[in-house]
Amino acid sequence: MYSPLITMKFRGMDLVSIRDLTVPQMNRIMDVAEGMVPIAKGEKVSKLLDGKILATLFYEPSTRTKLSFESAMMRLGGRVIGFSDPKSSSVAKGETLADTIRMADAYSDLIVLRYRNEGAARLAADFSEVPVINAGDGAGQHPTQTLLDLFTIREEMGEINGKNIALLGDLKYGRTVHSLSEALAMFGAKLSFVSPRGLEMPAETVENVEKIGTKPLITNCLDDVIADADILYVTRIQKERFADLAEYKKVAGSFQVNTELLEKAKKSMRVMHPLPRVTEIDPEVDSTPHALYFRQAFNGVPVRMALMALIMGATE
Amino acid sequence: MKELKVSPIKHGTVIDHIECGMALKVLKILGLTEEPPEDTTSVIIHVPGSKGCKDIVKLENKELKKKEVNQIALISPDATINIIRDSEVVKKYRVELPDTVIGIVKCGNPNCITNFHEPVEPKFIVESRSPVVLRCAYCNRKLEDVTANLL
Ligand SMILES: Nc1ncnc2c1ncn2[C@@H]1O[C@H](COP(=O)(O)OP(=O)(O)OP(=O)(O)O)[C@@H](O)[C@H]1O
Ligand SMILES: [Mg+2]
Ligand SMILES: [Zn+2]
Questions:
Q1: Distance between CA atoms of B147 and A176, rounded to whole angstroms?
Q2: ipTM
Q3: Are the beta carbons of A118 and B118 separated by less than 8 Å?
Q4: Which of A106, A115, B4, B82 is found 20 to 30 A from A233 (Cα to Cα)?
Q5: Are residues B87 and B108 in the same domain?
Q6: What's the gap in Å between B15 CA and the centre of ligand 2?
Q7: What is the pTM of this model?
Q8: Domains in chain A, please, with CATH?
Q9: For the segment B86-120, what is each residue's pLDDT rounded down to a tens digit?
Q10: How wide is the angle at C-alpha B100 spanned by C-alphas A122 and A185, nearest 5°?
Q11: Does B133 touch chain A (CB under 8 A)?
Q12: Which domain holds residue B128?
């Protein structure tokens, strides 16, 4: 039996890695996020975080993540300070991250950080009294992306447990797919990992997923999974990973999601993508009922609202 | 009759069975590089023994606590700590790798925040003792090669 007092403690917590959260906590965030949707759309007005200040420190470019955090804070009546161009801040003068965090800690109630180095958010949490949310640390963690992905699947499918979820693309370097796989396994999803040769899911992630209790199907061929998939989670395949352009084009072609491919899929199958996409999803898919990626991007707002409200102690 | 390479000490600590060539690293980890001048520290490097070569450190008038010395387990898992009183060994214990290792090795991930000019010491969680598996408390990567990353 779990004690709600222990597992449901949010107030003041840092969120550096998705592993900082228990399954009941993730469920709680999703429940609260559901209630936030009308506020996120602007249909309802909220003053839940009235008087609170969020500092968004983005040392690396990001459109979606930064804007959705800021929108989320403002929709809840709070305010935002921060930067998205470190050249315009004292960072350019060689200030350490630790010192910038000490300053942001003094000026705000909550810090959201994106930084180029792995481990940056953990370091920030060490130096900050106010809570820190990791919005991406190099090739490391991006836990709010995982939360919004889980929320999107749950919202669309009713539940995650038992669903066939195929992760597609560069599974080796793709930052989001590692923690997403582990989280999906914790929710009882059935997983398939589909990647070009050489860009397979790292052994450590496969091992972790198996330890949690699900044996993933691992393949280089999209045709192996397309008919059974409930969710096709597509990620980018970067040109730089290939020795020559011809090879890249061949691989990218065989992994492209287009209407021809979707004919082999279930009617209810949905396509997700953390965005931005390049060529991996044909724009003709956008207007089909399969496209879930724009909804997914929108969901970043209610999920981040829920998370911030819980961490600020404005919601139980 | 004991065979002693240096003159016997009356009171103090002998760190025996240190990995060959690691004695100076041990002193550094223990912060014993600036002991008061009246207390001699002897460092014996490359002592031939039954199991090959070892190093020995002898500290006069200082009794090391178990907790203080455990950090050296990473570089000398077989080291023993001998407490000497009135020229006799009165206590002997082996070092044990603690749950966290701080400031002894750096992270092998060149992009880890601890490898940049930030005011933190590299910190590792000991995931397993044999074989030794260390995971960076910051970037979460496994440290592949301990010796190559000694500070
Ligand atoms: N009074 C002393 N002064 C300096 N060194 C000492 C003194 N007494 C013992 N030692 C050293 O301390 C270490 C441990 O002494 P001990 O008599 O327990 O040897 P041992 O039986 O060989 O132990 P081990 O099995 O741990 O090798 C040895 O290296 C010994 O030379
Ligand atoms: Mg001996
Ligand atoms: Zn590290």
A1: 32
A2: 0.89
A3: no
A4: A115
A5: no
A6: 11
A7: 0.87
A8: 18-141+299-311 (3.40.50.1370), 143-297 (3.40.50.1370)
A9: 999 999 999 999 999 998 899 999 999 999 999 99
A10: 60
A11: no
A12: 100-149
